Amino acid sequence: MEIKVEIKEKAFMKDQKSVQVLDDIHLTFNSGDFITVIGPSGCGKSTLLKIIAGLDVDYEGSVVIGSNEVKKPSIDKGFIFQEHRLFPWLTVEQNIAANLPLKKPELREQVNQLINIVRLNGFEKAYPKELSGGMSQRVAIARALLREPKVLLLDEPFGALDAFTRQHLQDVLIDIWLETKTTMILVTHDVDESVYLGTKVVVMKSKPGKVGHVIPIELPFPRQRTDQTFQEVRNHVLKHFEQLDQYSAVEG
Ligand SMILES: Nc1ncnc2c1ncn2[C@@H]1O[C@H](COP(=O)(O)OP(=O)(O)OP(=O)(O)O)[C@@H](O)[C@H]1O
């Protein structure tokens, strides 16, 4: 499912003045791509993701997924936020099913499979308050995947997690992507994460937000951070930040 993003302009009102946030963005993603979007704080990454999700339609331009123009949010576009947004009064399996009937045997089977995929076996009946941040985020991912989205949009999903949990969830996400071939678009502050996960890294620059570079990452999966080739590609991506003179605003 090809995704075509054409944003002529996106502005917000601030102090009764219009502030341009995104300017002249043209991006085309192929079905099954794992896109990572990186750029300095405030360059408009989340705004771009919300526009692709149909959560923000107040802009000049269009987003087309397959043959459908995005006009509103829908279940074919899963969205994972930095914080998990689980229902505190529902168990893990109920949170995954949410509005779908868990009593239906086929659905129960799908939920069980997803619990396996995100490695939450044994926690089916647990409540969100009994889970760590990483586990909660895995529930949110399973909930989105149950809807079999054509595209999964992830806004700094691991930003609030410790480095160990973050690396673990990156591997979980890669496994899911390899298995389902769902198109993923993930926003991050972390260059390492963008190179570890992405088949293409979109490097944005700010004021107003524009696409600086789109860098294909041709390393095979699973990737090894310690490999020399990984380090070379990572340095290549970092160099592009330096060229954009915005390296200081981004975590190395
Ligand atoms: N609802 C809004 N109303 C007004 N301004 C907004 C709104 N949402 C975002 N902005 C502004 O738009 C700009 C881009 O915000 P956005 O959250 O998209 O950036 P970002 O690159 O995702 O930032 P970060 O990396 O810090 O999360 C910022 O200057 C922000 O203040």
From TrEMBL:
User: Which CDD domains does the annotation name?
Assistant: ABC_NrtD_SsuB_transporters
Per its UniProt record, what Gene3D superfamilies does this chain match?
P-loop containing nucleotide triphosphate hydrolases
The segment(s) forming the ABC transporter domain are 7-231
Tagged with keyword Cell wall biogenesis/degradation: no
Keyword set, alphabetical order? ATP-binding, Nucleotide-binding, Translocase, Transport
Q: Which PROSITE patterns match?
A: ABC_TRANSPORTER_1, ABC_TRANSPORTER_2
UniProt cross-references to Pfam families, sorted A to Z:
ABC_tran
InterPro entries tied to this protein: AAA+_ATPase (IPR003593), ABC_transporter-like_ATP-bd (IPR003439), ABC_transporter-like_CS (IPR017871), ABC_transporter_ATP-bind (IPR050166), P-loop_NTPase (IPR027417)
Listed GO molecular functions?
ATP binding; ATP hydrolysis activity
Q: Which PANTHER family does the entry mention?
A: ALIPHATIC SULFONATES IMPORT ATP-BINDING PROTEIN SSUB, TAURINE IMPORT ATP-BINDING PROTEIN-RELATED
Q: What is this protein called?
A: ATP-binding cassette domain-containing protein
Organism whose genome encodes this protein: Terrilactibacillus tamarindi
Q: What is the lineage of its organism?
A: Bacteria, Bacillati, Bacillota, Bacilli, Bacillales
